[in-house]
Amino acid sequence: MQHEMEVTDLDTLLALLPACRRCRKAKRRCDTQLPACANCSRVGADCVFLDHVSKEYLPRTYIASLVDHLKSLEARGHATGAESSTSSAEPETTASSHRPRFVLVRDAFRYLGENAPLGGSASNLLACPGQLRSNQSSSRLAIPPTWSWDAGLHQYLIDMYFATIHQVYPILDPESQLFTDPQLGRAEASPFEAFVLNGVYSIACHCLPGNNPQLVLLSDTYHREALTHADRVTAELNLEALQAVNLLAMRSLFDSQTGSLGQQVAFAHHLEMELSAREVEETSHALATLRATTYCVGNQMATALDRPSGLVEPDDAQTLALPNSLMHLCSLYKMQSRFRDGLSMEDMDVTNAYESDGAELNPLVQAAKSETAFLLRPSSETAMQLLISYHDEHMIFNIFTPHWAYKAGALLLSDPSQDASQEGYVLAVTVLDRCALKWPNSRALQDMLKASAKATVKSTSNQAR
């Protein structure tokens, strides 16, 4: 079934399990994450859950079959790895290299679609592990607790967050006393306030101009502090829990190694669906904003990995009520999602991706617009426009930026007849070099792009002879 492919690993699979229908009707939740629900089994009935991709209720025995499938894949992967250590691996055939595949990443299998930016090069990367610059964990920065509450640092990081991320994703209220009163002490802060402050600080450390990595260690420290309050913040099903999970997902856009973005998006979507079922007027606007945020972040990941997001589209009425930047961003990710689902260009309104609306867009929205145009119609022109958008001085890179930059650079190299191919190659290498400041494995993509450029030059020289 098509929707099997959205499951990446066992932890993600278990995180996607929602509350049992029968237990929810009884106003209680299952205490188990096992595919069989203990409470339903007592009355001889099978527990079911709503699959938001197929729009149908499926038995949890179906989830059990997927668990077994993933375990067999993992066992097969370990066996293959053991064999390859004693003998050289056979090269992939041309046909198999273009099929969607499960790729072993950080001791778990991740699904990469045929058109994923790393889909065509994953085998090369895995075959040459020595070429990868692993992101070695840095030594922890020992920071006195009072540093987190210093008035000067507090104001700098708060201002940075609200001048960048908040302009596109208005998850929090900037008028809250939490952000306007730097004298708010640690003893006075509730678990939610302590989580939000440290979460905002951590994200802001990644929003410095030029992808500056100077505060990365400080970001890790704030993130660890925020996680100490996460259990208490997410214990209740309310708007604060949804805000907290969205902040965690936002932070994972800058550091995929200390959090599972897929699990966080799935959790946020589950919370949003539960809250929508009992939505009240006082929270409807905030809930719509958080719903759109979850949808946009989830589709950033889904497009980069070329797989279904499994998220329900916000309807048009809700989208029109959003702030301008988030509304524009949401419409772009709707286009990307529909395109991945196989909808033809003729059946979609793609004007937002190609035509200028006359207004100056936020750099993050402009980058998403360029990514959408490149996804829908990959060409030297759209690839060049994408790389130019990354060079905006206010652009904030995330973990998916290297993938887009590599794919755009590779396309430009494949069309040497274009005058801009050399310039585009230089732009792509520069973007990957800046990305490598935070994500060292970007060097692998940069090396592959340089190797492709050398091969292109060599081929051109041979043809000239």
From TrEMBL:
Keyword Transcription regulation among record annotations: yes
Assigned GO CC terms: nucleus
Region (Disordered): 77-97
Biased segments, Low complexity type: 82-97
SMART domains: GAL4
Name of the protein described by the UniProt record: Zn(2)-C6 fungal-type domain-containing protein
Record's keyword terms, sorted: DNA-binding, Metal-binding, Nucleus, Transcription, Transcription regulation, Zinc
Domain Zn(2)-C6 fungal-type: 19-49
